[in-house]
Design a protein that fits this description.
Oligomer: heterodimer
Strand content of chain B: over 45%
Largest interface: A-B, 27 and 26 residues
Order of helices and strands of chain B: EEEEEEEEEEE
Shape of chain A: globular
Distance between the termini of chain A: 35 Å
Radius of gyration of chain B: 14 Å
Low-confidence stretches of chain A: none
Strand content of chain A: over 45%
Mean pLDDT of chain B: 93
Helix content of chain A: under 10%
Shape of chain B: globular
Order of helices and strands of chain A: EEEEEEEEEEE
Radius of gyration of chain A: 13 Å
Distance between the termini of chain B: 41 Å
Number of strands of chain A: 11
Mean pLDDT of chain A: 92
Structural class of chain A: mainly beta
Helix content of chain B: under 10%
Number of strands of chain B: 11
Number of helices of chain B: 0
Chain lengths: 113, 113
């Protein structure tokens, strides 16, 4: 019962470094999402994908990139990390949009120092 | 742009008490509304999903209502238990697009044994 799996769970980055947050789902969902959650704030959508090879920007895409080469995987890349990117990152997936339940990973805690 | 508000931000109740969590949203043109539970250090788990045409949904001790015209939803928890302690978030989905799920900031519930 893996569902949505994110790695790493915790990471400390120095300013200017780059890294990739990995996300994989085993439910054959077409839709995948990356959100960030800042303390005391609601989740904000970074990027989303409606299928392999198709990605689009969400509300807060600056400083991030994504790719979707397979249905299962949706990695999020941080280029030139900045302190403003300190946050908790959640990957999620759903069968489609509309009436479908959205499933979340357990989150990746990222600190940029 | 849709704004979702949850009041109160935190709530403590003694075990066994019935309680209501509130969610309000500014744009009534929604497709559905979901209530999620988030445990510390974990991802979000979907509890209930209400379609815009529905008035309420029930699952066990949980009952969620939706009044779309007034932009409000409530999550009623009956006979609260310490295991119900978590943060509860509501999210509303707009009518078009895959990038239109808007989250509230959550209510942190503590049930005191």
């Amino acid at each position: 019962n893996a569902g949505v799996t994110q790695t790493p769970k915790f990471r400390i980055l120095k300013i200017g470094q780059s890294m990739t947050l990995q996300c994989t789902q085993d439910m054959n969902h077409n839709y995948m999402y990356w959100y960030r959650q800042d303390p005391g704030m609601g989740l904000k959508l970074i990027y989303y994908s409606v299928g392999a090879g198709i990605t689009d920007k969400g509300e807060v895409p600056n400083g991030y990139n994504v790719s979707r080469s397979t249905t299962e995987d949706f990695p999020l890349r941080l280029e030139l990390a900045a302190p403003s990117q300190t946050s908790v990152y959640f990957c999620a997936s759903s069968t489609g949009q509309g009436a479908y339940t959205i499933y979340f990973g357990e989150g990746s805690w990222l600190t940029v120092v | 742009k849709q704004e979702v508000t949850q009041i109160p931000a935190a709530l403590s109740v003694p075990e066994g008490e019935n309680l209501v969590l509130n969610c309000s949203f500014t744009d009534s043109a929604i497709y559905n509304l979901q209530w999620f539970r988030q445990d510390p250090g974990k991802g979000l788990t979907s509890l209930l999903l209400i379609q815009s045409s529905q008035r309420e949904q029930t699952s066990g001790r949980l009952n969620a209502s939706l009044d779309k015209s007034s932009g409000r939803s409530t999550l009623y928890i009956a006979a609260s238990q310490p295991g119900d302690s978590a943060t509860y978030l509501c999210a509303v989905k707009g009518r078009t697009g895959a990038n239109n799920l808007f989250f509230g900031t959550g209510t942190r519930l503590t049930v005191i044994p």
